[in-house]
Amino acid sequence: MSTQLESWRNMALEFVPHALAGHDVPRVLAARQSAFTRFAEHGFPTRREEEWKYTDVSAIGRRTSLAPDNIPPDPSFEAKLLAWSIASEGMHLMVFVNGHYDHTLSMTDHLPHDIRLTSLAYLLDDTSHFSEKFFDKKFIAHDFFDKKHEHTTFSALNNAFATDGAVLYLAPDMVLDVPIYLLFIASGRGAAIYPRNIIIAGENSRAKIIEHYIGTLDVHNFTNAMTQINIAAGAEIEHCKLLQEGPAATHIAGIHAEQATGSLFISHAFTLGGHLCRNDITTQLNGTNSHCELNGLYLMNERQHVDHHTRIDHIAPESSSQEHYRGVLDGSAHGVFNGKVVVHPRAVKTNAHQVNHNLLLSRQAEVDTKPQLEIFADDVQCTHGVTVGQLDEDSLFYLRSRGIDADLARSVLTYGFANDIIERVSVPYLRTRIEHLVLDRLPQGDQVKDLL
Amino acid sequence: MLTINNLHVAIDGKEILRGLNLNVNAGEVHAIMGPNGSGKSTLAQVLAGREGYQITAGSAYYMEQDLLAMTTEQRARDGVFLAFQYPVEIPGVSIALFLKTALNTIRKQRGLPELDAIDFLNLMRNKMQQLDMDESFLSRAVNDGFSGGEKKRNEILQMTVLEPKLLILDETDSGLDIDALKLVADSVNSMRNPNRAIILVTHYQRLLDYIVPDLVHVLLQGRIIKSGGAALARELEKHGYGWVEAESTSRQVA
């Protein structure tokens, strides 16, 4: 046991979930307490652990408090403006401030009947809500807090501290064309924020979900978020995570999907801001003929650190996966990509392809990338590829020979590199938004923005 | 318009151009012919400002400016245009974005207002029609997955949109079928005017059937060893480069 003073070890366990949603429901309280015990047994990971070799999270353990922020402050005007602009686009919007649902900024009035979109705290607080058609007691007690969702020690911490989040239930055959936008605003000074989202897609249902984290202040917020996604047979979920935390923020998150026969899961992860960011994105292809696409783009500068760990488990036969991750690293930024694909013994005729391309824009920028294929079945097609490089000289010359100056040419090429991932997003509003966010970060990017 | 004097150019210490002289006036079309490895493409690249070449001696003046001292983008803004032999693929960047960026930069330099989206589209529609290019080209990534012919047509499209003063076409005819070749030649011919000069760098005479040059130069081992009228190209086609080479050697001996 470490002798180092770590604030979380001094936390009195019995008070931990005090005043959190579901505190008066014995089952919920017990589940939170046992999750905290599991977290405390392990503590924060160290760099001696393979999965955390390149990402140092020791600073989180030195925070003065890890307890969730309970009284959310008023969000900044900028964040409110963003919420209003999303609502005006007609999307179904749920806004959370420091992990707490803010119904005044949200807009969920126009949802079809067969779709239930609720705040998690609302469900946890009142047992009578469990008996609603969509969420039974069994689900809350046994599924939500289940150990199986604890992919890292941070997910155990999230299980213990989760304040609120979106719970989405799509009835079978329900097709929702308008995206659901979940906006998570980090506000206040150095808050610890624990959102938890649950998405349950019934058979042959279809939806697009956007999970957007935004921090507008230069403060040491810590967000530990988790999203679990259950996709029934024939259902299709496109999930897009947009990470735009403030420059001093730490963001550690998990997105964990389970897929049944013939289902489709498309995940996009855009990591564009934050001091230390880590996404663990996993999916289990449990049903035959299920398919997943994991796309990611990370754009980091200065001393920012970004780590993506993905894991795809091909469990059933004839499933396929496509993975496209790209990184642009400038300044002294450090990127990490670890893409694990496991083809289990039963998963014959698996088709799995993975690529990770990295663009280093400065000498100090660094990337550690590792594809990891573990194949235990015959008759499979698996490929992977990794590149780390600079902007292509021939391309630069080509642009300059058309009158475009060198800085702008670099920005255009960087934009083109990033665009390979951006254009995979099917929601036009989001594509444009991400394009602009990327261009905002590039020299003379405004000029390109005007031309798009 | 362009005056090149005793130009010596090396790459990685190996001399490619060895004392090249060339004088191109506004309104003229020059063809530079020569076998592989004679330095044709090096000349085209050096004029456009490609880095990585060492200029060991000589000079090049373009409209009274020291061309070799200008950056690549300055040359382009002042009207130098190179149609690439091997156009570069730029995934993720649409032709529309690429050309709008280039055109507005060049227009700014010429003191013209930037084109708005509608004017730009109209201009493009018009130019693309001339080249028998579908409008859907605009949204495709620059040269990404293009056939050889499409790439060359894209070069010509850029040329007609950017309206340069000095056009350098590097092996633009290679990879084109006869119909495409005619379209390209028509576009180039339509660009001919008293204020503009054109340099055609080519291996074969084929292109010169459609774009008749005022002068033909034979480039061999980094030097222009023979110049003449359009008829010279036809002689080269008939007899190959061997006889010019022999003639040049015997002259040197004499």
Automatic annotation (TrEMBL), chain A:
Pfam families: SUFBD_core, SufBD_N. Residues 21-180 form the SUF system FeS cluster assembly SufBD N-terminal domain. Residues 184-417 form the SUF system FeS cluster assembly SufBD core domain. GO terms for biological process: iron-sulfur cluster assembly. SUPFAM superfamilies: Stabilizer of iron transporter SufD. InterPro entries: Fe-S_cluster_assembly_SufBD, SUF_FeS_clus_asmbl_SufBD_core, SUF_FeS_clus_asmbl_SufBD_sf, SUF_FeS_clus_asmbl_SufD, SufBD_N. PANTHER family: PROTEIN ABCI7, CHLOROPLASTIC. This is FeS cluster assembly protein SufD. It comes from mine drainage metagenome.
Automatic annotation (TrEMBL), chain B:
Transmembrane segments: none annotated. Keywords: ATP-binding, Nucleotide-binding. InterPro entries: AAA+_ATPase (IPR003593), ABC_transporter-like_ATP-bd (IPR003439), ABC_transporter-like_CS (IPR017871), FeS-cluster_ATPase_SufC (IPR010230), P-loop_NTPase (IPR027417). Residues 2-246 form the ABC transporter domain. SUPFAM superfamilies: P-loop containing nucleoside triphosphate hydrolases. GO terms for molecular function: ATP binding; ATP hydrolysis activity. This is Putative ATP-dependent transporter SufC.
